[in-house]
Amino acid sequence: MIALADDGRLFGLDYQLLFDASITAINVFILFILLSFILFNPVRNMLKKRQDKITSDRENAEADKKEALAMKQEYEAKLKAANKEAEGILSDARKVAKHNEEKIVADAKQEAARIIARANTEAELEKQKAADEVKQQIIAVARLMASKVVAESISEADSQALIEQTLNEMGDKTWLS
What we know:
Blueprint: H1 15-149, H2 156-176
Helix pairs in contact: 1-2
């Protein structure tokens, strides 16, 4: 059965028990305060530092993300500008090439016109030369024939005048056709 205290109580609630309980409570309280300084505060500080580090890392990550987005937008803007600049350069190159092409074609046409003019001039000179040769041959033949026919009746001066008169009557146009 249950052992009863001397005075019939279940447990002996006396001054000694209360004193021991209060000393134990004070010791527990002192131990709690001492352990909180020794163990709890360092653990709290460590947790606080970890929480601050996580918050800092999160803020840094957000800042890095914003910076990366800004850099991406800047890169895209530069890329668009570079594409526009490249398009402008290509457009300018096309214009220069077109201008050069037109200049080359114009120069070729001018050269062709000069060659044609020179060929026409040379042909005209050759035509004049051929006409002069034909005139000289006709004159020689006419003189030979005239000298045989009228060898004794017409003098050399009269023969020359007759040839000149005949040539003037015929004109240059007769020799050109």
